[in-house]
Amino acid sequence: MEVVATIALQDGQILGEDIVVGGNVAIKKGTKIDNIIRQKLTAFRLMSVSVMEPSDFAETYYEKVRLSKDFGKFKETYHENLIAYKVAVDSFIYNKVPFRFAELKDMAWKLCPDDLLGKRLFAYINLMVPESESTMSFAHGLNVALICKVMARWFNLTPQDTEILVYSGFLYDVGKFLLPQEIIWKPEKLSKMEFDLIKTHAFHGYYLLSKSFGVNEHIKNAVLQHHERVDGTGYPQGLTAAEIDPFAKMIAIADVYEAMTSPRTYRDPMCPYKAIQIIEDESLQKYDTFYITTFLQHIVDELIGNKVRLSNGLEGEVLMNNRNDLSRPVVKCGEQIVDLSQNRSVSITAII
User: Fold this and answer.
1) What DSSP line would sit under 176-241, residue for residue?
2) What is the mean pLDDT of residues 283-307?
């Protein structure tokens, strides 16, 4: 709701709270403003009243966020910083201008202040549909940097390590900007030759940053190793757990989760529960146990209370999580309590 001066009220606005005079409700919440109502409010000597905003009429969480003033401000700031990030990357690659880390930090802290909850940040990112393929690589890097800012809190990193992780988020994929973007964002399955080309981006990025003075070693390692996996199945070197830099391990998680759950020009974002299910079923053993467990637990904890749609068509509210089955929480659908960890035939298909 928004507090508006009585003299500034417009026809059609809706009162957000009851107007109480002498202990009695004089005008009910939900009343539409017109000339008669304005005259009554003036007679009651009310200087201001609360009126409904568009987000107050929204029925779903994402719709409320999309219509909120905070998201409007975020969207504007996001676009400004996306352009600045693109300029920084292009200047580094094509004109050999070193990254100004203070500017990168300013971007991340503006878009993701310390009091911004992960739930709201992920909703913001989810609603930021890329305008074109030419902006998707830059949006991916900016989104991962913002996710790293939240992850740093979840992992209890020091302020210095938080900055290193965020810088790693900005720079880890810089080698991809040297490759054909039509292959990077190809919606169909890549050929072996195309995938082999994609795998070179880690070396390209590491080489570029190695020639740039003053880049922290953890950042360079994150660039080189973010596709390594603790079970040795990653690339480019097939490293195992102890050989992989911890910052690369953290970036690997942010990278894959952002890639799955953010919108693309050719597809809608994947439901977070579906992404978590894929990670649990197919690749949980590929990531550092502490980092992946902590990350996923925080993700699902911040989804408690959201309204969801189930594969059987029912809609309900997430009540609690199952710690050993994070993609399958307990959902309240009307009077029915559905424990998805016990009912394997039903799953969450969307947050609504």
Assistant:
1) GGGS-HHHHT-SSPPPHHHHHHHTTHHHHHHHHHHTSTT--HHHHHHHHHTT--TBS--SSS--BG
2) 95
